[in-house]
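Morning run. Coffee first, then this:
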Amino acid sequence: MFYNPDKLGYYTVGDFKTYNKFYAVQEMQKTNTFLHWHFNDAEYSKVDWKTNPGNTLSKLYKNRAVALRKKYDYLVLFYSGGSDSVTILNTFIEHNIPIDEIASCYSKKGSDSSYFNEEIEKVVLPNVNASCEKTGARFRLIDQTDMITGMNDPMWYVHTNNCITPNCVTRARFRDLIPEYKNMIASGMKVGFIWGRDKPRIMCDEDHKFYTEFIDAVDNNTSPYSQNQAYRGWYDEFFFHDPGHTDILQQQVHIVVDALMLGRLDAEFYQDSFTTNGKCPHTQKYLTNAGLISLIYPDFDLTTFSNGKNPSDVFGARDDWFFKTQPEPAYSLFINGVTELSKIYQKEDEFIWVNPVEDCPPPFDWINDIIKNNNDTLFTQVKSALTPRYYIT
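And here it is:
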């Protein structure tokens, strides 16, 4: 099989399978069976996580880039200027691997100085022309403003899982919204979209053993909408998380855990508060995001400007202009969709949980934070589902 959208993750509830979290939660209500999120479980369960494979990250990243180049007629790297996409771009440059297009997203018409645009203007635009010359790529700057304000699907919320903020919703639809992509795919070209996805999630349990796991908040770039269109030739690739290249993550987690066990990082890379990165047994503090980047992307310049993570996956800072200007009818459709989701994701009082699952939320308690907006009760985050733990130590 050339491409299987299952590799981007899917849900099961008993024998029911879907890419859409909305449908999975509804199925739980019908069957009293807890959902499970799957992320290449068959492949990752075969990995010997306790063994350090001893590879260099540069070689593994090169192998992945070469495989993608061979697989696709036209490769698009979505480039934000963050550590993930910078490392991918530098891999293609360092090993003289051609790429067809570097694409960056912003909302210029929405705001000249928004949270979304700042990284593009300070990191991407000053250097992207030089990168294009080295890779032979063209550069596409995608202004999502019109795409977001033109959103007209009243059922949009069915086709997203955790990342519900408008720019993420529209990003999964680029192959319908950008004529050139649509035409290339219609002509039979194999067009691959490369996404950085995220860094490894490294945790430490109550027995001080390190493990990694996968979280279903992967639809900040892709979504059930794009997965369900794979039959049309919609191909998305997570560069660092791929079932055919599990050695990348295996090597990454060992580099991080070895550094934590041996105290190889300076004190500046640890913090007292809990993060998704593991606790150092020497300092009893948690690894910062900068510390993690320094280990798995050693050539990335940590002084590079960054706004950090988007503080909400629903009312995100990247779409602050949208929430302030409230363009119609898109704004009402968005609010109505979030309201409909909250009705499904907050029904725990109506449900008798017969077989509770350890470490899982009640079947309908999928909302982290509640806010009041225009007299409506809305949520700011969706709780995530997790895969099994893969123990490293």
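The first strand starts at residue 10 and ends at 13. Good start to the day.
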